[in-house]
Amino acid sequence: MLKKIIDWFNEPQAAPPTPEPEPKPKKPRKPRQPKPKPQPVELTDKQKATAAGEPYIAILKVDLDPNDINNGSFDLDWNDKFVLNLVKQGYKIRNDDTDADIVDRWFQTVCRNIALEVYEQEQADPDKRESELRIIQQRDLGDGYTEVS
């Protein structure tokens, strides 16, 4: 027991120091990539109009025949609200009319109105009327009668 007390007061002899293990080399880290933020989806004009409940019509492409410029075609794009407005305006004639038939009927009316407006403007211009090939002749027959040819 005395030996235990003496050992207790005496410092224990230190064990020879054990060499510390060398630290493992750190693995190189990949550079951090920021998380990609989702890009806001840009809506087309048609999608914006449709979402707002507004009618939409656009000319996407015009094709002309290079050999005959009087022949060509238009490529149109529209939404359902536009067709619904055309139906309300009476452009749907038959029950089996497709959306393309209704829009085509409207587009023909627009083109016809443009052509008539140009024709009326030309007829109203006195300089262009005099150069017409059609000559109207009037002859007084007397007694208030006039011959027009």
Radius of gyration: 46 Å
What is the tally of beta strands?
4
* Helical residues, percent: 25-40%
Outline: rod-shaped
Oligomer: single chain
- Count of helical stretches: 5
Uncertain runs with pLDDT below 50, 5 residues or more? none
Q: Mean pLDDT, as a whole number?
A: 82
What string, H for helix and E for strand, traces the elements in order? HHEEHHHEE
Structural class: alpha+beta
Distance between the termini: 154 Å
How much strand content do the residues show?
A: 15-25%
Describe this structure in words.
With 149 residues, the protein is α+β, with helices and mostly antiparallel strands. It has a domain of 81 residues. The protein is built from five helices and four strands, in the order H-H-E-E-H-H-H-E-E. Strands 1-2 form a two-stranded antiparallel ribbon. Strands 3-4 form a two-stranded antiparallel sheet. The radius of gyration is 46 Å and the shape is rod-shaped. It starts with a helix and ends with a strand. The mean pLDDT is 82.
Supply database-style keywords.
149 residues, alpha+beta, two-stranded antiparallel ribbon
Question: Topology, pairings included?
Answer:
Elements: H1 2-9, H2 45-52, E1 57-65, E2 68-78, H3 80-88, H4 99-124, H5 126-130, E3 138-142, E4 145-148
Antiparallel strand pairs: 1-2, 3-4
Helix pairs in contact: 3-4
